[in-house]
Write a structure and sequence with these properties.
Helix content: 25-40%
Radius of gyration: 20 Å
Structural class: alpha/beta
Largest sheet: 8 strands, mixed
Order of helices and strands: EHHEEEEEEHEHEHEHEEHEHHEHEHE
Amino acid sequence: MFDFDLVPGPVVNRILNADRTVVTDLVRQTYLHHESGESVNPDSYFLRFPDKPDARIIALPAFLAADVQLAGIKWISSFPANTRRDLPRAAAVLILNDFETGYPIACMEAAQISAARTAASAAVAADVLRPDGHEHTRTAVVGAGVIARNVCQYLHDAGCRPDSYVVHDLDERSGRSLVTHLNDALGQEAAFTGDLGTALEADTVILTTTAATPYIHTGFKPGQVVLNLSLRDIAPEVMVRAANVLDDVEHCMKANTSPHLTERATGARDFVTGTLAEVLTGAVTVPTDRPVIFSPFGLGVLDLAVGAFVLSRARADGTSTAVPDFFAETQRW
């Protein structure tokens, strides 16, 4: 009952990289569990700093019932200035709690878990929002960091493989690094472009930037699918002319996301077509006469589902580290 395990980053990374299709299926099922009410997913809490306005640390508490029966919290930092020192922007830990007793049962490195669940959600969306497949299409990636690399890998493993990629980043070195990864690791044709407009013309556009305010003011065209993973790139006048699919409507209408800014600009939510889970179940049909924008706020229940999977695999293969006597008192008297 009082077991407590540590799962370090290399172990997490190995488990996730070995089972990307399993992670994608987990994320798909968790969206459905969340839609059916088998979860508790409170608002995320943002810790911000007056001296570092672009930095934040976010707490994502959640509970997932279904076959997981765990609560927990992800504590994830986002410090964009790290990239100028060639450090990853984000770092995170995930705490899992037993639902019967409330006791913590594990702590694991979670930047990779966060990236994986984000990438898996993109793969689920790309698959269902482009039902005719990705053959004879071009995909653009705007923002070439860790999340972008993971998204491309998960799309590839999910069979969402375009004929070619185009990559745009304000930091050309980062952009060309992703191009090399696409060429060498995934065998995909890819090229770098310094022109944002060229990237935004692709059939599928993946936005994975650290932008704090919208910079995309030109509308997309019918047939384009936009994975708005960084959430703040697209201006309201573009959002209202698209079919908008969210992961969770209430969560997306906060923190100056593109959907939130659009709600404030229009005074309504009628620009929202539905949730990804509703599209998955067929409750919502995405129109074909408009571009489709998927905006996921990022749900803590996804971290729980993926974290529970990682912990189970790590315990099974002996790569988690048990901490004996982690709790000082295990009896009331």
